[in-house]
Amino acid sequence: MNPDHRLPYSEVLRVNEIGAGVTRRLVPDEAARTRIVKALDLASLTRLESEITVAPAHIGWTLSGWVRAEAEQVCGITLEPLPTTVNERFSVALVEEADVSPEVEVTLEDDSPDVIEEGRIDLGQYAVEQFALALDPFPRKPGAEFVQPEEPAEISPFAVLKQLRAAQDGKS
After folding, report:
1. Which helix (H) or strand (E) holds 134?
2. pTM for the predicted model, two decimal places
3. Cα separation values, 163 from 25, 152, 159, 166, Å
4. CA-CA distances (angstroms) from residue 129 to 80, 99, 124?
């Protein structure tokens, strides 16, 4: 079941379920894989599985695990399916909203922890995010090269006038 219909795959873990640590194995069903294909603009996704552990850390929690997938991306040049295999490990620091200082400035290079909102951690969303991060952002089949089409020769306004005059002379 997908509690948040805006997300392609959602499996929620509540903070009060973590205790000393919890591990979940995630395998989206066919409907969820179809939504993931659409969300990530893939040709197909035959397998996606992930195992995620959430455990207490010095401050907050650590979410870690792996994601494995068999998919087909679309070649950016030929538009043909391009087989892709993902087998990645990941680790993300988590803190609750109350533990975040309002003075903290977040930048793109910042590796600050993710903030848990409303006491919920969406493990499915993390699995899809880590899968997406492992994909090639510019997939290209081996040997495929982009060839710039020739620019049309610039037509001078005088050449256009000459053609019009020739057409006029031909009618008379």
Report:
1. helix 123-134
2. 0.74
3. 72, 18, 6, 5
4. 24, 24, 9
CA distance 109 to 172: 73
Tens digit of each residue's pLDDT (9 = 90 or more) over 40-76: 999 999 999 999 999 999 999 999 999 999 999 998 8
Q: How many CA atoms lie within 13 A of 58 on its CB side?
A: 1
Rounded CA separation 50/79 (Å) = 28
116: tokens are 């848990």
Segments of 18-139 assigned E as strands: 22-26, 44-56, 61-74, 81-96, 114-116, 120-122
Identify whether the C-beta of residue 13 lies closer than 8 Å to the C-beta of residue 123: yes
